[in-house]
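User: Could you write out the 3D structure of this protein bound to adenosine-5'-diphosphate? I've included everything you need below.
Assistant: Certainly. Input first, then the structure.
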Amino acid sequence: MSRLEIDTARLPVLLNELRLPAICRMWADLAARSDKEGWPAARFLSALAELEVSERARRRIERHLAEARLPPGKTLDNFDFTAVPMLSKAHLMALASGDTWLENGSNLLLFGPPGCGKTHASAALGRALIENGYRVLFMRTTDLVQRLQAARQTLQLESALAKLDRFDLLMLDDLTYVTKDQAETSVLFELIAARYERRSLLITANTPFGEWSRLFPDPAMTVAAIDRLVHHATIFEMNVESYRRRTALGRKNNATRHKSEAPAAPP
Ligand code: ADP
Ligand code: MG
């Protein structure tokens, strides 16, 4: 057995030990090509390194997409910006690049009636941010509050909040659906205070601040929470009619038009 054969026989073990699965899978093909085309050794080595790095980036994005629990199928591409004139595509695309707002822990607040596209726009933004290397978690606010309440009961609230720090952006969908008894434990306030000026929050809500008194145990806390949320925030007021309703009406009108355009039935 030649020296070369002995070395390559051990390669899978070595590459596995070094945690280089992409190189392990691809080196043989690339080596054959490199031999055939007479690549310098440095080119071969850097091609392998590039391969592993891009595989890693792909796997990381896949992991971050899975952990984010975004509603599926909602992207910037399939969001109809003409339906929401106050939400500019350019602005959302700029936010999707992350930039300074996530580094500064600034917030994004989306207000509007049911069906106006708050959840869709948020999920689409989240997906784009993950593709740009950020970590995001999407949750219904009531679910998150429930989780934090459970943590508080076992004296683990602080560590539960600290765990959420790994997300550059925490998306709280439907904030105003928090119930009165959930509000009493004030974990929502603790969350807002803990992330203030450090980690970003995205909040969607059907009702603007005037009706938030239900969400917190007392008026002072409501004011303090809103104050922290808006101090560094972009606010989108999406006051448009429900997209669901509009598309349903569109279909109905279309159907009626088609019916009236159809040739008259023979007598
Ligand atoms: P909200 O969260 O404001 O209640 P959603 O984001 O859930 O509204 O939107 C309701 C439905 O309408 C979803 O299926 C969503 O994908 C769709 N939708 C809403 N706005 C748009 C839009 N501008 N373009 C495309 N689909 C939209
Ligand atoms: Mg929604």
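DSSP finds twelve helices and five strands in the chain.
User: Perfect, thank you.
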